[in-house]
């Protein structure tokens, strides 16, 4: 259904940073958990429990990004089998752990660049590095879409989104059905139909469109609805957002893609700030 690039990120820089870090390790302020032998170190580190959060700052910051794991949903049929591989390993003699990532660019929470569905834009270099951070960051609305329909022109009209609103995240039946949490791609997801996309382009000031499944466009209109959004090269599409347990309303939206030159998509970290 979609064009998927595979990315191999190999960061020599990280190795350099890790080497320089060893100069300042450990000291009284930051004691190492591993100050004696390997075996007792292993036991101690087993009791270290990192905290994983969805919300920060007493609810002020809400993470609306899905975690990337081997199980994160991706466009059918690609899976994230080799997401992370340890190429250097502290348990077998290396001074540091050093992982390599292999990531389909349209997995989990991600952004589409104009080159995703329009070949001329891809060739001309309209990649994720050219996306406007001013569109991806600023005030916007999280709205609930009626649950009995895909996003048609009629549905868009009924949402009464005021002129001047530049960023909208559309929460749909996909969130209620927990579709992003499932292991298999489900083509019955809710998304924009071509006429809904066209209505948005013609009648609103929305430049950031976010939805809660891997594609903003319903499967039946996958290509035409994407093209309607992307052809003007102004609208940015963020897909696969985690909108569970968030109140509809006005937020400051912040989304940052990677600066992947030549890429028509990128993983993206999105947060809402109250
Ligand atoms: C150490 O572990 C890494 C990653 O698992 C592996 O690629 C490498 O071959 C191992 N080296 C030795 C000497 O076992
Ligand atoms: C480093 O590698 C060891 C396996 O050799 C693993 O147990 C440990 O979790 C790794 N640490 C990180 C941060 O990945
Ligand atoms: C939305 O469209 C898909 C096909 O693209 C369909 O399977 C699904 O039932 C529709 N959802 C609703 C709520 O109409």
UniProtKB/TrEMBL annotation:
Keyword NAD on entry: no
GO biological process entries: L-tryptophan catabolic process to kynurenine
Record key words, sorted: Extracellular matrix, Secreted, Signal
GO MF, one annotated term: arylformamidase activity
Alphabetized InterPro entries for the sequence: KFase/CYL, KFase_sf
Principal location listed in the UniProt entry: secreted
Cellular compartments annotated: Secreted, Extracellular space, Extracellular matrix
Signal peptide range in chain numbering: 1-29
TM region positions: none
Superkingdom per UniProt: Eukaryota
A UniProt-annotated Pfam family: Cyclase
Family under the similarity heading: Belongs to the Cyclase 1 superfamily.
The protein's name in its UniProt record: Cyclase
The organism of origin for this protein: Daucus carota subsp. sativus
Taxonomic lineage from the root: Eukaryota, Viridiplantae, Streptophyta, Embryophyta, Tracheophyta
